[in-house]
Structure formats: structure tokens, C-alpha cells
Automatic annotation (TrEMBL):
InterPro entries: HerA-like, HerA_central, P-loop_NTPase. Residues 346-369 are annotated as: Disordered. The lineage of its organism: Archaea, Methanobacteriati, Methanobacteriota, Stenosarchaea group, Halobacteria. It comes from the Archaea. It comes from Halorubrum alkaliphilum. Keywords: ATP-binding, Helicase, Hydrolase, Nucleotide-binding. Residues 19-225 form the Helicase HerA central domain. PANTHER family: HELICASE MJ1565-RELATED (PTHR42957:SF1). Belongs to the HerA family. It catalyses: ATP + H2O = ADP + phosphate + H(+); Couples ATP hydrolysis with the unwinding of duplex DNA by translocating in the 3'-5' direction. This is DNA helicase HerA-like ATPase. GO terms for molecular function: 3'-5' DNA helicase activity; 5'-3' DNA helicase activity. Gene3D superfamilies: P-loop containing nucleotide triphosphate hydrolases (3.40.50.300).
Length: 369
């Protein structure tokens, strides 16, 4: 058995590795088993064009993490395809976040207001005042109790409305803000009493954040709150386990309100112990930092030019030849580039032991009575 993601391959403790699959020989036969290290934190990317197996591979990783010691997998599931993880003890959550876990400065962008406009800056001020008021009365943004043990009074959309009605602003500006708050409320993701993000990492049970049907901007708000919340929880010493954030369709979350939190995980997440895995069929739509900061790259087949170009950025001095020419073509086959061992291998990803709910619908599979 080989372990990728760590320099020293000897005395591998199986509770601290995840079985990825097996080496794939040139003649298509399976070689030795390949595991990934989950003892240390990692940043990884999983690439592949549609249908090549990247969500499946993310599921393999989540299953393995569910069986590993000292870690907590959290899966961002925009398409609702990770429900099968309940068979590995996973919990499926329709995520809610505390309104105060999104910084006041981000609220205008979140609801589609220009932060420099009258309405945008009024919303910014309103949220800042409501959150400050909550803290003054014992509220803590993402914890359960405030310092001193006072019960928390987390900010709510209602408290934003209260501060809005007292703000010194023209009625028309106030009305615009009120309409945008109503939009945010309609997403159904905000709840002043939402469980703290650190609760997702309290045990080893995989948490699947089911975002199917949630609008993209709202999903980005959730991803921001969760990414930042897991990072802060480790920095503040609120969780013992090492969280692993696995994000499917990750291209959808860069460039929007989740972007700064995801970049923080990529560049600084490993130091407090947060691992981050981005899966996407559009590597070209990820920022370069996603590839340059990743120490593990798992790539299924890619063909589009911008995606293959992003791959070229991962070409390290220890790799001979270009990566694109080494990509395997079969479903579930991947090239794994590992910084720790400075190697690249072709791997056949193992079968899942829990059901995979992705894949394209096919008319030929319909049973007709
Ligand atoms: N390692 C594997 N072993 C066996 N079958 C696999 C493996 N990986 C993928 N498959 C098969 O290929 C199908 C497509 O995989 P998957 O849903 O992961 O594609 P995808 O690359 O995530 O595509 P999409 O972009 O549409 O989500 C799966 O439903 C499964 O049947």
C-alpha cells in the first residue's frame, strides 16, 4: 500500500489514511492500493469534465473521512448528490446560518446592492449596528454563549428591520433596503438561532449541506459562513477535530461573496488544521491560487482548453512532460499529483460503499411496465 500526501510512507496507521483506489498500470490492470494521508491538513483539487467521476471521487473521500480518526468531513452539495452518505452515518442538513455570521460589509453584495450606493451603505450600517447591539447585549456572532456566560442575543433579519426603521435615511432608500432584506429572507437560509458552524465539526459524522434548489447567491452566503466558521472555530480552539471542507461545483463559489473565505482556507487554512477540497468540472474558472496552493491534485479527464491550461500551472519541476498528455480517459480513472512525495500516478478510484446519487439520467435505464 502507498500513501500519498505524506513524505514518510512507513508505519501508516490505517485510521489516518483514506483508501482512494489502486494504481493503474499501462496495460489497464490494477496495481497496489493507494491511500491518501488524512493525518495532516491538506488543500486539494479534484478536476474532471462532466461524467468522469469527480463527485464520485469526492464521495469516496468523504466516506473514508467518516471512518478516520480525529477528522470531521463537511460536504457542500450544490446538486443534492451526496445523500448516500447517510449510509456512512452522515447527516443531511438543509443549512441555515446566523445573519450576523455574514460581515456587515458583505451584506450589500449578498443581496445585490452596490455597497457604495445609498441603499447599499444604509444596509451595511444597519447590519453593523444590529450586530453590535447583539454583542452589547451578550450576543456572540457564531458561538453559543458570549463571554461571561450571558445568554446570546444573535442579530436577526427582524433586528436589521428594527434598526432600519430607526435609521436616518430617505424613505425611498429605506424601502429599497427593506425589499432586499425580504429577498434575503425568502432564501430560507437565515436563522438567528442556527446551530453554530463549529457544531458541524463536533464529531466525526459527515455533515452534508444540501444546497439543491437554493439560489446561487444564497448558497455562496452559506459557503462563506461555513468556510469562515470552521476556520475561526479552529483558530479560537472551539473544536478539537480537524475539519475537512469538501466543496462540489467549487467554481460557482469563487468570485462571489464566498471568495475571500475560500481563499483564506487555501492560503492559511492548514495552519490551524482546516483541510479544503475543491471539485469542479471547470478548473479554468477557479483562481490560480486554488491550484498553486493545493498539495494534492486529482484530475480525471479534461478536454476544454482553459481547463487544460489551468492544469499546466500545476506542472512542477519534478514532473517530466505535460500533465494533459498523461490524463487517463476512463471513468473513475485519475492522475494524482502529490507535492509531498513529488510524484504523479495514474489511479483507478475505488468503488463507493455508499450509494452515489450523481450521474446523468439515461432513457435506456427507465423501466417501462
Ligand atoms: N471510481 C468509480 N468507480 C465506478 N464507477 C464510477 C467511478 N467514478 C464514477 N463512476 C460512474 O460514473 C458516473 C459519473 O460520475 P460522477 O457523477 O462523479 O460524474 P461527475 O464528473 O461528477 O459529473 P457531473 O459534473 O455531472 O457531476 C457515476 O454515476 C458512476 O456510475
Amino acid at each position: 500500500m502507498s500513501v500519498l500526501g505524506r513524505e514518510n510512507n512507513s508505519d501508516a496507521d490505517e485510521s489516518l489514511t483514506v483508501r482512494l483506489g489502486s494504481f493503474l498500470a499501462r496495460d489497464g490492470s490494477d496495481g497496489a492500493a493507494v491511500d491518501l494521508d488524512v493525518d495532516s491538513p491538506h488543500a486539494a483539487v479534484v478536476f474532471g469534465k462532466r461524467g468522469t467521476g469527480k463527485s464520485y471521487t469526492l464521495g469516496v473521500l468523504a466516506e473514508g473521512l467518516a471512518d478516520s480518526r480525529g477528522v470531521s468531513p463537511v460536504v457542500v452539495d450544490p446538486m443534492g448528490v451526496f445523500g448516500g452518505l447517510t449510509a456512512a452515518g452522515g447527516r443531511i442538513v438543509e443549512p441555515t446560518v446566523r445573519p450576523g455570521s455574514i460581515p456587515a460589509a458583505v451584506w450589500p453584495d449578498l443581496v445585490g446592492l452596490d455597497p457604495t450606493s445609498g441603499a447599499g451603505s444604509l444596509l451595511w450600517r444597519t447590519v453593523a449596528d444590529a450586530v453590535d447591539d447583539g454583542k452589547g447585549r451578550g450576543g456572540k456572532v457564531d458561538g453559543d454563549t458570549a463571554a461571561g456566560g450571558k445568554p446570546s442575543v444573535p442579530a436577526s433579519i427582524d433586528s436589521f428591520r428594527r434598526f432600519l426603521s430607526e435609521a436616518d435615511a430617505p424613505d425611498s432608500t429605506r424601502r429599497t433596503v427593506r425589499n432586499h432584506l425580504r429577498l434575503a429572507e425568502s432564501w430560507g437560509i437565515f436563522d438567528a438561532d442556527a446551530p453554530s458552524v463549529s457544531s458541524f465539526a463536533a464529531d466525526g459524522t459527515p455533515t452534508v449541506l444540501d444546497l439543491a434548489g437554493v439560489p446561487e447567491t444564497a448558497s455562496a452566503g452559506v459557503v462563506r459562513a461555513v468556510a469562515r466558521g470552521l476556520y475561526d472555530a479552529r483558530v479560537d480552539g472551539d473544536v478539537d477535530r480537524l475539519p475537512w471542507l469538501l466543496v462540489d461545483e467549487a467554481h460557482a463559489f469563487f468570485g462571489g461573496v464566498a471568495d475571500p473565505a475560500l481563499r483564506t482556507l487555501l492560503t492559511r487554512g492548514r495552519s490551524p488544521g482546516v483541510s479544503f477540497v475543491c471539485a469542479t468540472q471547470r478548473p479554468g474558472a477557479l483562481p490560480s491560487v486554488a491550484v498553486s496552493q493545493s498539495d494534492l491534485l486529482v484530475t480525471h479527464r479534461l478536454t476544454a482548453e482553459p481547463d487544460v491550461e489551468r492544469l499546466a500551472e500545476a506542472e512542477a519541476t519534478y514532473l517530466a512532460g505535460d500533465l494533459a498528455s498523461r490524463l487517463p480517459t476512463g471513468t473513475g480513472e485519475a492522475l494524482v499529483v502529490d507535492d509531498a512525495t513529488e510524484t504523479a500516478h495514474t489511479v483507478r478510484v475505488r468503488r463507493r460503499r455508499t450509494p452515489h446519487e450523481g450521474g446523468s439520467p439515461s432513457a435506456s435505464e427507465v423501466t417501462i411496465d
